[in-house]
Amino acid sequence: MSSGMKKGSEIIVDVLQEEGVDVLFGFPGGAVIPLYDALYHCPIRHILTRHEQGAAHAADGYARVTGKVGVCIATSGPGATNLVTGLANANMDSVPLVALTGQVATSTIGNDSFQEADIYGISIPVTKYNYLIKDPNDLVRTLKEAFYIARTGRPGSVLVDIPKDIQETRIKYKAVKEVRIPSYHPTMKGHPRQIEAMLRAIKVAERPVAYVGGGVISGGATDELGAFIHSANIPITTTLMGKGSFPEDDTLSLGMLGMHGTRYANYSIYHSDLILALGVRFDDRVAGDVKKFAPQAKIVHVDIDPAEIGKRVNVDIPIVGDLKTVLGQIQGKIKGIERKKWLDQIAQWKKDYPLHYIKEGELKPQYVLECVNAIKNRDLIVATDVGQHQMWAAQYITTKKPRTFISSGGLGAMGFGFPASIGAQVGCPEKTVIVISGDGSFQMNIQELATARTYNIPVKICIINNGYLGMVRQWQEMFCNKRYSQTHFEFNPEFVKVAEGYGIKGKVVRKSEEVLPALEEALSIPEPYLIDFRVAPEENVSPMVPSGKGICEFIEEF
Amino acid sequence: MRQVISVLVRNHPGVLSHVAGLFARRAYNIESIVAGVTERPDITRITLVVSGDESILEQVTKQLRKLIDVIGVIDLKYSKSITRELILMTVYLPPEKRVELIQVANSFGAIIVDISDQTATLELSGNERRINTLLMALAPFKIKEIARTGLIALPLESIAGDSKEFLA
Question: Strand locations in A479-524, DSSP E?
Fold first, then answer.
């Protein structure tokens, strides 16, 4: 063995360090034993989750709050298949994630070997790109490419499947300085002629609205967005993924739009004469009926992914480019437009149709979210799971900074929130991380309580416990004549006792007056903490635009 | 609407899965797909015949371009490209109809590549219309088996100019 020869697994670890990876989330198994052996003396921190899905979501949460590439590891077969939801989730929300999976030895691939699964084939539709390494000499280049593809252009998940023998083979390490993929060149700069067209459209518009999504956050363009919105004096509404791209306490903010958006956001879109769609994809939860979305408006659509432009709506001024670059290109070119009439109209809608709920009676979930929102003097990160509580969080948490509200948007994966909050806290140890979950969602990755305890990751778990799969129940109430088919949990565990079993403190809260003290207690201890909020079981998320309907076709208050 | 799309991709074992999978998961209709090496061993040309309305075809093109392995996509308009397909067909051939078959084959420039006691196998390459016409002309014969390659195409340089521009 000559000097300079290294095992494949050691080379993997070298590349991870070169890429600046400081934490890995994973779960070992037979096909990654060599990789874990190489990690044994390595300075990269490893968080051992209790399920591979937890590792994928945690790496995703880490990536969302830090902007860096999240990395997760799983073994072959079931380990790899357990990552699939996490890969799909990250990819749908354009989160940079690299998953490393072990694979059975190259000589046994295709033999239905023990713990063999074709994760390369399985992951094609749920990743931005994927690899199966068959030659150890490809390791360095492939891993470098994986990181490059995950974080550039429209970010996404990338899977690298590495057979066990490749991890064990000794080869000469050859550094790859630069990644060049001849078929992959994301467009960064907006076409000057289109930029001019956009500026002209803004100048003549009387009722413009900016409709902003996650692309602005992943593009690191929030400063440019803020400067543009203020100088052009344009009201702005964001998608769920766009929360944090612009401070929601600003008068120009309309909060979230869409199915559970504010009425004033949706009215503004509907009556607008110019939609500036920035880093969005006209998803069906925003534009249920594209014909009744903004019928009078000219649409400018800026996105780094050309395939998003014209996918669901016809666009008048398409601009392919990176949001930071494009917003930089128009900076300072629009100034001093008053728009009094339009802004007055919006102010009136805000006054007439605020978010509201009836506070009386049982503990209301919205009230819990208002109390979370009232937490002062802390840098908060709010993670959510999926369902009613997610929408209440989106509505009642005033998000002011990018990367402080993380939620499974596109895939809507229950079970995302808790492990993602763990990853978020690992990525931002100085911040306070609160996860808003539901009794349904929380039980999908409840085992990660052990992870939070093991590393004393002090996330504050708020379970909005209504004993139902609340969002589905709400639909069944409205569209199935209250036939609550399989949405009622006849049994739920005592979550506080479960937490106790994992060495985590907690409290049950049943009354409004107990909410703030419980939150204060949770925040006062430097440990994970669980609060089981027993809320009104049949509270609905309002307002609501039913699936497939126009943006102003709200269901009357119920 | 039908469209012939020529896609140049990086040549590696998984690339066809990526392309074919795209059509499956986005529910695009695909009539034929042919892959073969090009003048460069590291590049494969995939020729697709797809159908759908204009907006779907635009999406198909964009989604193909989005694939990391795709170097270039070109919409090969029928009028500006040369298209070819190869067909092999075996027909039942009673001895008394041999002359008739040879006449049909000759009139299309088809080659009879195999003859057995009861069958004959013909080969023809041409554009779709020519192949479909041959099939009609052979209607009186009972067909045993058909194998078609699917369409391949290249732009007509004499009309379309230099096709290399789409590599950019």
Answer: 505-509
**Does A182 contact chain B (CB < 8 Å)?**
yes
- What are the distances in angstroms from CA B83 to CA A276, B8, B135, B147? 43, 16, 18, 17
Identity of the residue in A124, A128, A129 whose CB atom sits nearest the CB atom of B21: A124
Topology adopted by domain A5-172 = Rossmann fold (3.40.50)
Q: What are the tens digits of pLDDT across the range A392-440?
A: 999 999 999 999 999 999 999 999 999 999 999 999 999 999 999 999 9
Q: Regarding the domain with residue range A192-352, which homologous superfamily does it belong to in the CATH classification?
A: TPP-binding domain (3.40.50.1220)
CA distance B19 to chain A (A): 10
Burial (CB count <10 Å: 0-12, 13-18, 19+), residue B12 = middle
Domain B84-152 in this protein, CATH class: alpha beta
Topology of domain A365-534, per CATH? Rossmann fold (3.40.50)
Chain A residue nearest residue B19, CA to CA: A124
Q: Output b/e per residue, A207-242; b: 16+ Cβ within 10 A.
A: bbbbbbbbbbbbbebbebbbebbebbbbbbbbbbbb
Tell me the domain boundaries of chain A.
Answer: 5-172, 192-352, 365-534
- ipTM greater than 0.95: no
What Cα–Cα distance (Å) separates residue B150 from each residue in A400, A480, B78, B126, B147? 56, 48, 15, 11, 9
Q: Which two tokens stand for residue A255?
A: 């909060």
Instruction: Assess A312–B contact: CB distance below 8 Å, yes or no.
Output: no
Q: Does domain B2-76 have CATH number 3.40.50.170?
A: no
B14 shares contact with chain A (CB less than 8 Å): yes
Q: In sequence order, which ranges of A339-386 are alpha helices (DSSP H)?
A: 340-352, 365-373
Chain B hits for A129, CB-CB cut-off 8 Å, are 68
Among B54, B57, B59, B68, the strongest candidate for a mutation testing the A interface, having the largest count of A CBs within 10 A, is B68
* Count of CB atoms situated within 10 Å of the CB of A490: 5
The alpha carbon of residue A120 is apart from the nearest alpha carbon of chain B, in Å, by 9
Using a CB-CB distance cutoff of 8 angstroms, which residues of chain A are in contact with residue B23? none
pTM of the predicted structure, to 2 decimals: 0.95
Answer whether B59 sits within 8 Å of A310, measured CB to CB: yes
Q: Averaged in consecutive runs of 10 residues, what is the pLDDT profile of chain A (558 residues)?
A: 80 97 98 98 97 98 98 98 98 98 97 97 97 96 98 98 98 91 93 97 97 98 98 97 98 98 98 98 96 97 97 96 97 91 98 95 97 95 98 98 98 98 98 98 98 98 98 97 97 98 98 98 98 98 96 84
